[in-house]
């Protein structure tokens, strides 16, 4: 992929996507960016996540995928930045702009390359200081459908043959090797579990909206976490929490789930006095299980010791973790639990 003349006078072209995986529609946008400017920045969204059915590839794997489709000269013109999901549009767009401008601080013109495929493309309007070039969506390729084929097929060779018209050859070759990793088998199991879970609700007259509670419990610059023992997110770190019972108040549910999963050895009155804040996390994409709105309760115990804990219920482990270590664990968290911690404790700002 190489272009010798640029179609417009812009110094830097920007392409934003999740690229899970990089397909021919993405390749079309990258081609337009290479034609538009001498330097291209590819923004890898949804980075620093634990692997999931929705985000199975790390940022490093996506970079390798994209670079595999480019010749050596073109690779020299393309740079990559990884950006986390903040579940906050303003904060996310500022982070994207800051990372792009760090690479090209002296550039006087930026062009954002993209197309409006559906309602999720609204993010393209969040960069008013950059010129927006809309490209026609000629491929109509859906990355969700690609992942479905990968996870549902019994034979990888067959699935890659089905995807021949959607993926560059270099990406198909990359995926053939990637599917031999242990992570792929775990994701297939997770996908099947999610499908079974959603099927159980398929007969509901309306798409279900779930209500959950989570607890952020801190003391001595540590936070109480559990390691999930089962599907979904087996082995990932999470906040103690769970689903609201039908006749239960939210705070009561948070305390119940906290005790069931950690057996935290403090009195109810201690928790009540330690409550600092409550926040609602309602991003439509925060959970793979479906629309799930959680109410997070932040307790600061301010004790001079760590109360006893013991993992129970569906928690494989319970642990007091230093807040200073949370950022390095970001890719090990379930769903948006890192971001819940970040909202209360400003972890990513440290």
TrEMBL record:
<keyword id="KW-0548">Nucleotidyltransferase</keyword>
<protein>
    <submittedName>
        <fullName>NUDIX domain-containing protein</fullName>
    </submittedName>
</protein>
<feature type="domain" description="Nudix hydrolase">
    <location>
        <begin position="208"/>
        <end position="344"/>
    </location>
</feature>
<dbReference type="InterPro" id="IPR004821">
    <property type="entry name" value="Cyt_trans-like"/>
</dbReference>
<dbReference type="InterPro" id="IPR015797">
    <property type="entry name" value="NUDIX_hydrolase-like_dom_sf"/>
</dbReference>
<dbReference type="Pfam" id="PF00293">
    <property type="entry name" value="NUDIX"/>
</dbReference>
<dbReference type="InterPro" id="IPR000086">
    <property type="entry name" value="NUDIX_hydrolase_dom"/>
</dbReference>
<dbReference type="GO" id="GO:0016779">
    <property type="term" value="F:nucleotidyltransferase activity"/>
</dbReference>
<dbReference type="InterPro" id="IPR014729">
    <property type="entry name" value="Rossmann-like_a/b/a_fold"/>
</dbReference>
<keyword id="KW-0808">Transferase</keyword>
<dbReference type="Pfam" id="PF01467">
    <property type="entry name" value="CTP_transf_like"/>
</dbReference>
